[in-house]
Structure formats: C-alpha cells, structure tokens
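Weekly modeling sync, notes
Attendees: AB, CL, MP (scribe)

Item 1: holo prediction request
CL wants a bound-state model with adenosine-5'-diphosphate before deciding which constructs to order. AB pointed out that an apo prediction alone won't tell us much about the pocket. Agreed to run with the ligand included and paste results into these notes for async review.

Input as submitted:
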Amino acid sequence: MKIKVGVMFGGKTVEHEISIISAIQAMGYLNKDKYDVIPIYITKNNEFYVGENIGKIEAYTDIKKLLAESQRIIMVNEDGKTQLIKYPQKLFSKGVYDYIDIAFPIVHGTNVEDGTLQGYLKMFNIPYVGCDVLSSAVGMDKYVMKTVLKDNGIPVLDCKCYTGNQYDEDADAIVEEIESAIGYPVIVKPVNLGSSIGISKAENRSELYDSLDTAFHYATKVLVETAVQNLKEINCSVLGDYETAEASECEEPVSSDKILTFAEKYIGDGSAKGAKGGVKGGVKSSPSGSKGMATLKRKIPADITDAQRDEIRALAVKAFKVLGCNGVSRIDFMMNTETQQIWLNEINTIPGSLSFYLWEPLGVKYSELLDKMISYARKRERENDSITYTFDSNVLQGVRLGGGTKGAKGTKN
Ligand SMILES: Nc1ncnc2c1ncn2[C@@H]1O[C@H](COP(=O)(O)OP(=O)(O)O)[C@@H](O)[C@H]1O
Ligand SMILES: [Mg+2]
C-alpha cells in the first residue's frame, strides 16, 4: 500500500510564494511508486485547499481562480486517520475528500516554519516530516538559537537583543549600549524573519537609529551584532536525526556589494528599491538568505580549504543535533577571510529547494533525499509512540470543588 503524503505549502508568511515553488518542485521528485501525493495549499489566511490544480505551478498566476475551482478542507482525526474533510460541508455530499498518512510541510518563514504548523499537526497525532515544534521554534528565533548554540560551544557572534517596547521607552539608552558593547559597524536584524527583510548595516549613530526603526517596523524583537569584515558566506546542509545527522557539500553564495532586497532575490528586479521588505543601507550581502532559488549564483563546492570545509561540516552537524533537528536543514556560516574566524549565522529548518543541490554532489538524488526525510519522520513517530503519555492516577477521585476553605485533595498547589 502506498503512503499518502500531504505536501503542505504556502501559509501566512512573506515567503509564501517561495514555498509554492519549493513544494511543487519537490512533489515532482517524490517517488510515485511509493507515495500518493496530495498537495495541500495553505492560503495567506491559513485556509487549506486541495484539488486537481493545486499542485500545478501555472495555476498560481491566478490564485482567485484556483481557489474557486478547488476544495477547501479541514483536518479531522477519525478512526486513527487524519481525514481531509470538505469545508463547508454541503448537504447530501460525501464529506471526506481523502486522508493522509503523513504530512510534509514545505513552508518557509514565520507562522509556518517556526513550529506553528508543526504544533498544529502534532495535535492531530499525524506524523510530519522535518523538525519538531521545539527545534522549529528555536531555529526561527535568531537570538534564542544563538543562546542555545553558544551554550554548547558553537561559535556565534555576540549580540544584543531588544524588544520594541524597550526601544519605545528609551531608544537613546539602547543606542548607547550598542555603541559601548559592540561598536560600529553593526548589523541590525529582526530575530525571526528571513530573506534579508528588515536587515541593514549601520556605520554611525544616525544610521543606527534608522536601522533600528527599520527592523522594528518588521518585528517586535531585534538583534544587533558586529558586522563581519572581509565576509565570505558558506552554507552547509545537514540530513538525518539525532543519531544519523550528516553534512552535505558546502556552497558559497556569490556575494554582491549589499544585502539584496527581497525583490532582487526573488523577482530579479534590481531596480525595485522601495519594494516591501527591501533593505536600505549598503551592506555586504549575498543570496544566502534566499531560499535556494536555482537562479541565484553560488559556488559548489565552496572555495575554502579542506580544513575549513571539515570544520564547517562538523559544526553544522553539531548544531543540528544540539537544536534537535530532523530531516534536512541548511546551516549558514560567515567567515572573516583575513582572520579565518568562522561563526554560525543562522539555521533554516526548511531550506528552499530543501537544499537538494547540496546533496547531489555527494551522490544523493533529490528523490532519495525526500525518501530519507520521510523515513526519519516515521522513525520519530515510532519512537514517540513508544513513550507513555498517560499516567494513571487517582487524582480525580474524591475531588470536591467549591468555595469551601478546604483545598481539593490531591490538586497541585
Ligand atoms: N553580522 C553580519 N555581518 C555581515 N553581514 C551580515 C551579518 N549578518 C547578516 N549579514 C548579511 O545579511 C544577510 C542576511 O542575514 P541573515 O542573518 O542570514 O538573515 P536572513 O534570515 O534574512 O537570511 C546574510 O546572508 C549576510 O550577507
Ligand atoms: Mg540568511
């Protein structure tokens, strides 16, 4: 019997469109002898749609039309299966569209990649591919991620993290603290966005105010760190789970002179200055923040020494394990080519194109990569199933609630 895989993509995120591309590309490589693939599109309002054209890229040029000809569904747990139920239910029509054995989220960004969708799926007891709730959430918050990695001896840049509230209360104090603790030039970035959105470099006080204003426009939590000089960026993917994690080939995204805007990265429009999500200020950057779009330039393998390659691959595997990742992630590093220092910059728990292009050089075909990801999810599910989630106790026996002064016997105090 084939495994029914529900590939979920889209969602309420700025990387909605990138996810559609990543997912439809991946579905083309899922082995149809093993899997029945059910594409599930998540709209920008987080509604789920299925249908004949949902897995076709051409259909997304007119999403309104696509939705009109497709079927909205909700997920329901019934008889130990996750059913896709037509919504709203029509009188006298068959309510069940189909069911799925496993969900495969190929989503990018906040509200989906950050543990939200994973938590939703977990509530349905449905196995899902990729990182679990905690690793997804920790991986999405650059500050929390750095804190955990640092505690485990992985090199990350020191940073300062501030909330919008703190900034509103005393921006001057924040600026002074940054100046004394870090010094210029600094990079200011929202903790939980991707694709370079809201990120800029500040060389002096007035630029720092501008950078903070920009970052807080996109997020309520922002971090500030030193801007790495003589920057070379290296990315490495890791595949597996807590036992089997292994590193891919390393890539070097080809840098331009500044952080690319969202439009430049994804729409190929270098003139789209005021584009939503655009970054201002001249910052050394590269397409590494991108979701691995095939059109972006990169060197594979990266132009680094064998020793550097070994170090980066070992750090990537260690970070993957420390964060409790599963499936495939891409871990991005920054290097100062003069001092040879290396820092882990960020993790993408669902990288664009699932980083397949970093596995091919090692002889792992895209369809094999997807197979492995699914088998790691099933392994995790079996392991979770063996854990006892119920605890027999007599706590509820003899409980009396009421306004009396006597506390309910056996309740937590
Ligand atoms: N500390 C830094 N020093 C120099 N450049 C940086 C630094 N942090 C980020 N950048 C540049 O900005 C890009 C995007 O930052 P990153 O932290 O990867 O966020 P995103 O999640 O948006 O990709 C990086 O690829 C790099 O080019
Ligand atoms: Mg990045």
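Recorded for review: The two ends are 51 Å apart (CA to CA).
Action items: CL to compare against the apo run; MP to circulate these notes.
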